[in-house]
Every structure is written in structure tokens, then in C-alpha cells.
TrEMBL record:
It comes from the Archaea. The chain crosses the membrane at residues 20-42, 272-295, 315-337, 344-364, 370-390. Residues 283-400 form the ABC3 transporter permease C-terminal domain. The keyword Electron transport does not apply. GO terms for molecular function: transmembrane transporter activity. InterPro entries: ABC3_permease_C, MacB_PCD, Macrolide_Exporter_MacB. It is found in: Cell membrane. This is ABC transporter permease. PANTHER family: ABC TRANSPORTER PERMEASE YTRF, MEMBRANE COMPONENT OF TRANSPORTER-RELATED. Keywords: Cell membrane, Membrane, Transmembrane, Transmembrane helix. GO terms for cellular component: plasma membrane.
Length: 408
């Protein structure tokens, strides 16, 4: 019988014969592959969640923020943050290709309900802007009604603030205080999973009117803008026009504000997550290296313990190539078995972390990736074969007479 057809039997017999040593060898491969699969899956999950939320905003969206807020490398350091005046916003709204300009005002504040206090972010919008935020999917009501122009001292409360922060739940119709000013709750948002870099965390946010905001806070001009174009093809043109408006206001080569498209921000997030992934996977690969060393050790011992078997194989006509192939495939099978269990444990851990993250309010969309599975299995098998190459070559070069005597 051709020994190559019996390689799986040889490999399984060797794994069981070596006992604890083989299982510890497998453990190193399992840990390494599991760590790599888990980290890649979680990184992809974060990227998927961010992509999904940016798709809700649409590819025709631009973001305006103080220089440096996007994490991009601008020419020089950002200057002191300046608020955007109404005249500047009107110039942006007058751009023919612009459909809508959202200019919310925000400030950190103290929220009092009963005798309890907490910190939160107050975002002030107009009723029209509130409806635009709802269309993006970031602001969804679990209960209550939409604000109107008459709701000066009315609020929309984030889910966590209403249900998880205070001893008693806040309900629609309740009164709360913002910096000692009384406001009425008219709506409570749905619980929103927050992605990496995607949109405001509405769970811990208060939405109110700009009129009510001006009664509490001194600064009433916005710092951030969200601008939508009429057509996707107009995004770059509008970006250039916005930058020219800022140059006319703050001077040529201004470093006060910068403009980014949703695609640019998503690309930056992807690059950042990619770097983190590579670093973590590099650290996780140390476990796989240890597993490879274990495979080498196991195969060396296997060659030493099976010299008679090697001699018999050669005596009945097995060539050096066949003996080399048998031991190489055996080492690869050890890596493959470790890879299979590593993929299973890796995905199990990734889905558990994803479920826990979603439950805690962080969007983490872990998905099964067949390319990652196949790549991990091939990589594990390759590590096994590379690790077993030297012992396999040693077995292939044995003199059959010497091997039959059980001597190297």
C-alpha cells in the first residue's frame, strides 16, 4: 500500500502515541490561531459597524470640525477652537449644491432628577435639524413625540440616562433640571449601539431646543457642522467651496476648521483599526511561533522513536521523497488540527465579545468570514509543515540498514 494514502492514519497514531506532548504541541497552535482569528474578527466587526453607521449618513455627507479633531495630519497645529458665526453658516447654506446644513450646539452639563445628579452632553437643535438627525438613524424614539417650534423647555432624553443612570426611571412627562433650569421630557430615545468613530452616543445625550439652550448657556454658536449635498457627485465640489468660504473668513491657508467627507473619515478609521490589528496579531503570533517550535520538537522525537518504521518503509521501496512527504504531511496535519480548533475557539470568543459589547452599547458587528477561516487553516498547516521540515528531511536521509537496527 502506498504510504501516502495512509498519512492521516500515521498522523493520528502519532498524536495519540505521543500523548501529552502532542496535546501540548496542539495547544500552542490552537492558542495562536484562536488569537489571530479573534483579533481579526473583532477588528473587522468594529469596521463593519462604523461602515454601517456612516452608510446611514450617506456618501453625500461632509463633516466640518475644528482642525485636528479628525486626527488627520494638518500643516501645523490647530489653533484655538472658534465657534461658527451665523453669517458663516448662511454662506455655507447659500452654496447651490448644498441640500442641508445641520449646526447643532453642544455643551457638557449637570442633569438633576429628584435628588440625584449626573453629567451628560446637551445637544441643541432646531425641529428641522432634529428630523434630519432622525433620518440618519442616530436619533430614534422609543417613546414620546417629536419636538416642535413651541418646545422651548422640552427635552429628548437618551435611553441610558432615562433607564440606567438614576435610581428611578425617567418617564415621558417628567421634569428634570439642567443647570438648575427645569425642563420637561417629551421623548426617550431607543438604545443605540455606538460604533468606533461613528456618530454621537445618544444613549447618554440630551437633545433640546436652541432657544432653551440659550437660556442656560452663554455660548450659543455651533462648533461642528454636518452638511449634505444634493447629489453624491457634488461632494468634492462642495468641499472645495466650503474650504474657500473658511479661507475668506479666517484667512488663506487657515488652520481653524477642516472639512472631511464620510468616505475620508471611514478610510481613516479603517487605517487606524488596521494598524491596531497588525500590532495585536503580531503579538498573538508569538503563541503560534511557540506552537511551531513544539511541532518541531514533536517531529524530532517522532523520528527518533520510529527509526525502525522508517527502515521498513525504505526496505519495501519507499524513496526519500515519499518518506519526506509522509513526515511533512504529518506535521502539516498536526498544524491543521490545531488550526481547526483554533478557528472554532477564535470565532466563539469573537462572537461572545461581540454580544457583550452590543449589550453594553458598543456596536461590534462580528461576521463569519470564510476567507479568514481558509486562510487561518492554510497558515496553520503551513506553519506545521515548515516546523516539521528539518525532522522530515532527517528521516528521509536515514540509511535503511541503520534505521532497521534502530540506530540513527
Amino acid at each position: 500500500m502506498n504510504p501516502l494514502t495512509e498519512v492521516p492514519t500515521y498522523a493520528i497514531r502519532n498524536l495519540t502515541h505521543q500523548g501529552l506532548r502532542s496535546y501540548l504541541t496542539l495547544l500552542g497552535v490552537v492558542i495562536g490561531i484562536a488569537a489571530i482569528v479573534t483579533l481579526f474578527s473583532l477588528g473587522s466587526g468594529l469596521n463593519n459597524a462604523a461602515t454601517e453607521q456612516f452608510e446611514q449618513l450617506g456618501s453625500n455627507t461632509l463633516f466640518v470640525a475644528p482642525a485636528g479633531e479628525f486626527g488627520s495630519q494638518s500643516n501645523g497645529s490647530s489653533t484655538n477652537v472658534k465657534t461658527l458665526s451665523e453669517s458663516t453658516i448662511q454662506k455655507l447654506k447659500s452654496i447651490p449644491e448644498v441640500e442641508v446644513v445641520l449646526a447643532p450646539i453642544s455643551a457638557p452639563t449637570t442633569v438633576t432628577f429628584g435628588r440625584e445628579k449626573t453629567r451628560a452632553t446637551f445637544i441643541a437643535t432646531s425641529p428641522e435639524e432634529s428630523r434630519e438627525f432622525q433620518s440618519t438613524g442616530f436619533l430614534e424614539f422609543a417613546e414620546g413625540r417629536e419636538p416642535t417650534s413651541r418646545d422651548t423647555f422640552s427635552l429628548i432624553i437618551g435611553h441610558n440616562l432615562a433607564k440606567k443612570t438614576f435610581e428611578n426611571d425617567i418617564r415621558v412627562g417628567d421634569k428634570i433640571k439642567i443647570e438648575d433650569r427645569s425642563f420637561k421630557v417629551i421623548a426617550i430615545t431607543k438604545e443605540n449601539a455606538q460604533s468606533f468613530g461613528g456618530g454621537p452616543n445618544t444613549n447618554n445625550t440630551i437633545f433640546g431646543s436652541k432657544k432653551g439652550f440659550s437660556q442656560v448657556f452663554a455660548e450659543t454658536d455651533p462648533v461642528f457642522l454636518l452638511i449634505k449635498t444634493k447629489k453624491k457627485d457634488d461632494v468634492q465640489l462642495v468641499k472645495d467651496k466650503i474650504e474657500r468660504v473658511f479661507e475668506s473668513v479666517y484667512g488663506k491657508d487657515q488652520k481653524v476648521y477642516e472639512v472631511q467627507t464620510s468616505e475620508q473619515l471611514l478610510q481613516q478609521i479603517g487605517q487606524f483599526l488596521g494598524v491596531i490589528q497588525l500590532v495585536l496579531v503580531g503579538i498573538a503570533s508569538i503563541s503560534l511561533l511557540v506552537g511551531g517550535i513544539g511541532i518541531t520538537n514533536t517531529m524530532v522525537m517522532s523520528v527518533l522513536e520510529r527509526t525502525n518504521e522508517i527502515g521498513v518503509m525504505k526496505a519495501v521501496g519507499a524513496t526519500n521523497t515519499i518518506v519526506l512527504s509522509v513526515f511533512l504531511m504529518e506535521a502539516g496535519f498536526i498544524g491543521l488540527v490545531g488550526g481547526v480548533f483554533g478557528v472554532i475557539f477564535g470565532y466563539a470568543l469573537a462572537f461572545i465579545v461581540g454580544a457583550v459589547s452590543m449589550a453594553s452599547g458598543l456596536a461590534l458587528k462580528v461576521e463569519f468570514d470564510i476567507t479568514l477561516v481558509i486562510g487561518s487553516l492554510l497558515f496553520a498547516m503551513l506553519v506545521g509543515m515548515i516546523s516539521g521540515f528539518l525532522p522530515a528531511r532527517r528521516a528521509a536521509r536515514m540509511d535503511p540498514v541503520v534505521a532497521l537496527r534502530g540506530i540513527e
